[in-house]
Amino acid sequence: MFKKLKLLLIPLFLLLNFHASAQVNEDKTGAWYMYFWNTQFEGTNWGILGDVQYRNWNLGGDLQQLILRGGLSYSIPKSNFRFALAYGHFISGAYGESDATFIENRIHQDALFSHDFNSRFFFTHRLRYEQRWVENQDFRTRYRYSLFLNIPLNQQNLGKNAIYLALNDEVFLNGQQHIGNGQTVETFDRNWFYSGLGYSVLDNLRVQLGYMHESSNAFNKGQLQLSLFHSF
């Protein structure tokens, strides 16, 4: 009887030990390095855009996610509305020493509205709907809303030589709770709150350094972010 119980407990112990070793250290700050680009075709309202992101569980070397993304944009004439359709390829890594990765392919649609207040506070609202094909999961969808605010500190616009405060908050909601293989998720997925400082190197080139706090059902963690925004 004891031997049978021991044989049952050993795999359970190994499973629990693996699960514990895979837990994210919430006290360790991660780092995300990001490049965003966009351009508009001359004489049209159409453009292309994309980004490359290298996200780490630590300051560098422990891959959290590699993102390659690109898409098509359309700006409604004589308005502050813009729409985008994009495809992204994601490689996500496990926390810690494991080299395990999994793949996700994603399509999303954006609706963006930009406006300013008192010619000094520059807002952008973004609604995003995602269709997700995650390895070893069922097809999933997700809804996201983000509010961005840029505030120039040394001049009244975000043009060349502007130093500005950057703030944004984004909430994520899952479209499905059952995602396959007996796995479930909550409707609330995560929230990102970011604050940072930016500098406009040129009218079409900005660099930002900031800190983002990520709150999710799995973990709560801080991330340093270094971002480059390029329009051409």
Automatic annotation (TrEMBL):
<protein>
    <submittedName>
        <fullName>DUF2490 domain-containing protein</fullName>
    </submittedName>
</protein>
<keyword id="KW-0732">Signal</keyword>
<dbReference type="InterPro" id="IPR019619">
    <property type="entry name" value="DUF2490"/>
</dbReference>
<feature type="signal peptide">
    <location>
        <begin position="1"/>
        <end position="22"/>
    </location>
</feature>
<dbReference type="Pfam" id="PF10677">
    <property type="entry name" value="DUF2490"/>
</dbReference>
